[in-house]
Amino acid sequence: MINLLKARLRHGYQAIPNPLTVPIHESFPGLPYIQPDADLEKLNRLCPVKAFCEKGLDLGKCVFCGICEREEPQMIDFKPNYQIATDAREKLIIAPGQEKLPPIVPINPRLIRRSFALRNVSAAGCNACELELGASTNVNFDMGRYGIEIEASPRHTDALILTGPISRNMADALQITWNAIPSPKYLVLCGSCAISGGIFAQSSELKREFLSRFEAQLFIAGCPAHPLSIIYAIHSFMGAK
Ligand code: SF4
Ligand code: SF4
């Protein structure tokens, strides 16, 4: 017992005091700022996933490789802002001159304010989003302090959190897991693969019809999504104080 207490004192308090307000390292490529006079077509030619459109940059497609910023730093600057999630797909497009994304509107705080359980389906991503989702629950980020848990059984969950672009051989497993979650249930897309197909978007091995049958309520950008983005998004979605 004495040794346990000594170890506890030696380790100190490990968790981030408040993951919703903590400053993040300045090198983190989060929400970009696009100059109002930026040449979006030129930026799109540089982009490996063609994430720019006439309205701005689609963060649901961006894989945060940094090429556009390195080549045209006077046009675009990725800020260390991890609040890169929205409650609607179209809100992920950030326009030139826009400084932040619209706040996430809570879905139904009376149902899920204090507790929100998610089941992850890893549908053929590179495993980095799954690692970051796992890290969200570790002693450092401690997502569980807000009542947010990743569960093993879909029967015990409120939502499905999808990572990966959905390959053919994961399409049925995704549907079966979704069917097993009791209603009301929510769909969360985590990472650019889940939102848009990401770097795999052009692959003939994808089968993403699930997303045309069921509408997602929460979109978390990133490649991979950062634990702080995940916690910010789900906490806001819950309407928790
Ligand atoms: S950081 Fe995003 S927008 Fe820029 S080149 Fe890479 S994928 Fe494209
Ligand atoms: S979004 Fe990026 S990090 Fe996440 S699974 Fe896809 S390739 Fe991997």
Q: What keywords describe this structure?
A:
241 residues; alpha/beta; Alpha-Beta Plaits; Rossmann fold; 2 domains; 9 helices; 11 strands; 29% helix; 16% strand; globular; binds iron/sulfur cluster
Summarize the structure in short.
By secondary structure, this protein is an alpha/beta fold. The chain has two domains: 32-82, Alpha-Beta Plaits (2-Layer Sandwich); 109-238, Rossmann fold, CATH 3.40.50.12280.
Which helices and strands appear, and what pairs or packs with what?
Elements: H1 2-11, E1 32-34, H2 40-46, E2 52-53, E3 56-58, H3 67-71, E4 76-78, E5 85-86, E6 93-94, H4 109-112, E7 116-122, H5 128-136, E8 148-150, E9 159-163, H6 168-180, E10 186-190, H7 192-196, H8 210-213, E11 218-220, H9 227-238
Parallel strand pairs: 7-8, 7-9, 9-10, 10-11
Antiparallel strand pairs: 1-4, 2-3, 3-6, 5-11
The structure holds iron/sulfur cluster (SF4) (2 copies).
Bound molecules: iron/sulfur cluster
Strand coverage percent = 15-25%
Order of helices and strands: HEHEEHEEEHEHEEHEHHEH
Number of folding domains? 2
Number of strands: 11
- CATH fold assignment of the largest domain: Rossmann fold
Sequence stretches where pLDDT stays below 50 over 5 or more residues:
none
Please state the second-level CATH architecture of the largest domain: 3-Layer(aba) Sandwich
Fraction of residues in helix: 25-40%
**Which of globular, elongated, flat, extended, rod-shaped describes the shape?**
globular
- Derived from helix and strand composition plus strand pairing, the structural class reads alpha/beta
